[in-house]
User: Fold this.
Amino acid sequence: MAIGHFVLTQMSLDVSDLVGVAFFGVIGVIGVAIGNAWQKRRHDKLATWARANGWDYARYDAALERIQTGAPFSTGDSHAAMEVMRRDWQGWPAVSFTYRWTTGSGKDQSTHFAHVVALRLPADLPRLDVTPEGVGARLRKLAGGKDLQLELEAFNREYRVVAADERTAHAVLHPRLMERLLQPHLVGRPWRIENTWLVTWEDGRTDVDQIAARLMTLTAVADAVPRHVWQDHGHDPLATIRPHPVPKESS
Assistant:
């Protein structure tokens, strides 16, 4: 009798476990389906906005996943460049996309997003990071982190500058550009030159209302690069009409 009771109890537990697994499996499938439907509607909405505003749209582009080594491209796994928009912007090939990556694993896995806006440059320039001063930047300074000091003290207070080549950094960040980047509508936005890309980014998915403002920062920087800097790195801006186009991949 006791053995029979144990068998029945064990069977009940096994059935209960199977029901629980099946239930959560169904919930997971439903969740994925809802997420896919939401993303499809978002793609459709962004594609409509892109067409109306002169941008080409692609859902994904693997060629953009590792265009730089700094944030937000430097951490996590399962990297993806999605919601990709391209067009020419004031003579520069421009791209906007949502960058997605994951950290952790299993129950602790988290998905992160950043809205990236970038210009493709005609030459490979030394890395130059310009980020707003904040608690993190001040702590890195106190710990001995690098911070290039420039001619304009107001700029030094507002931004942290890390350069692979200080001579190039001083040439790019000349007083006129620093004064412009201190204007209220441009101040406080991070940007980086690395390889053939000039990039700015912010947490969250693509926000179409912010694209033009971020491109204003990037074009201010790109237009201010002196001709001799381009020439030092194999490009003469007076010898070509425009930079190389942004490479495309089929969506």
Summary: The beta strands are 56-60, 77-89, 92-103, 110-132, 159-163, 191-203. The mean pLDDT is 85.
